[in-house]
Automatic annotation (TrEMBL):
Record bears the keyword Cell membrane: no
Annotated Gene3D superfamilies: 2-enoyl-CoA Hydratase, Chain A, domain 1
Domain CoA carboxyltransferase N-terminal: 1-98
Record keywords, A-Z: Metal-binding, Transferase
Name of the protein this chain belongs to: Acetyl-CoA carboxylase carboxyl transferase subunit beta
Swiss-Prot/TrEMBL GO biological process terms: fatty acid biosynthetic process; malonyl-CoA biosynthetic process
Sample GO molecular function, one term: transferase activity
PROSITE patterns named in the record: COA_CT_NTER
Phylogenetic lineage: Bacteria, Pseudomonadati, Pseudomonadota, Gammaproteobacteria, Moraxellales
Any one cellular-component term (Gene Ontology): acetate CoA-transferase complex
Domain of life: Bacteria
Keyword Repeat on entry: no
Amino acid sequence: IQKMKDAHLPYIVVLTHPVYGGVTASLAMLGDVHIAEPKAMIGFAGKRVIEQTVREKLDEPFQRAEYLLDHGVIDQIVHRHALRDTVSRIVAKLMNLP
């Protein structure tokens, strides 16, 4: 990732269902742009583990891509069949390509 940043290349993260654990805590959230599939579950730990840790009930959708988009954690939700075109447009825009 650092080599990409040093070369001024965008780091685009595509989050597919499910994304949990260390990947979420490290590589997945270091991107310049975060794209998720619809309804993808994204989090460090599962709902039950978090509820046991914080000792309170959590709203059901708090780890869904749509909730994360509404709260500014990810940038976009894109269906898998549209990912290629979407990522191509983002790269072209960020790299000032025609």
